[in-house]
């Protein structure tokens, strides 16, 4: 008796191709505040979708590009925006958009950059 390939793949635990579907974020961005000069990692996301979606990060509606201060990280289907050192001009709405030919999903949150990070030694020197 000869098995069909699809039966053999199931028996070996190999996943069969998924049905096409639009992306959906399984974790959403959360609003956050950070002090000037600190680094921040905007949450990792697991956008589902078949075929795997393309992903874009935006700041106030403008695409975020890889740079010395902004790192766009991807590990399999997990996406992270890492800002090495935040400044007041980094305050705003950050969104992550995922899309494929079947649709798109988006998540967004507000980042607030507060005054300069100060050490207790600096504060004591002023008094």
TrEMBL record:
<protein>
    <recommendedName>
        <fullName>Ig-like domain-containing protein</fullName>
    </recommendedName>
</protein>
<comment type="similarity">
    <text>Belongs to the protein kinase superfamily. CAMK Ser/Thr protein kinase family.</text>
</comment>
<dbReference type="InterPro" id="IPR013783">
    <property type="entry name" value="Ig-like_fold"/>
</dbReference>
<keyword id="KW-0393">Immunoglobulin domain</keyword>
<dbReference type="InterPro" id="IPR036179">
    <property type="entry name" value="Ig-like_dom_sf"/>
</dbReference>
<feature type="domain" description="Ig-like">
    <location>
        <begin position="23"/>
        <end position="112"/>
    </location>
</feature>
<dbReference type="InterPro" id="IPR007110">
    <property type="entry name" value="Ig-like_dom"/>
</dbReference>
<dbReference type="InterPro" id="IPR003598">
    <property type="entry name" value="Ig_sub2"/>
</dbReference>
<dbReference type="InterPro" id="IPR003599">
    <property type="entry name" value="Ig_sub"/>
</dbReference>
<dbReference type="Pfam" id="PF07679">
    <property type="entry name" value="I-set"/>
</dbReference>
<dbReference type="InterPro" id="IPR013098">
    <property type="entry name" value="Ig_I-set"/>
</dbReference>
């Amino acid at each position: 008796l000869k098995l069909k390939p699809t039966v053999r793949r199931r028996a070996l635990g190999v996943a069969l191709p998924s049905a096409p579907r639009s992306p959906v974020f399984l974790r959403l961005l959360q609003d956050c505040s950070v002090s000037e000069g600190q680094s921040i990692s905007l949450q990792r996301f697991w956008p589902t979708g078949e075929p795997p979606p393309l992903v874009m990060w935006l700041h106030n509606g403008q695409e975020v590009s890889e740079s010395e201060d902004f790192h766009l990280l991807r590990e399999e289907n997990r996406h992270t925006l890492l800002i090495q050192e935040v400044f007041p001009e980094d305050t705003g709405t950050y969104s992550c958009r995922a899309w494929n030919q079947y649709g798109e999903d988006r998540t967004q949150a507000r980042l607030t950059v507060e005054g300069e990070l100060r050490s207790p030694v600096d504060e004591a020197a002023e008094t």
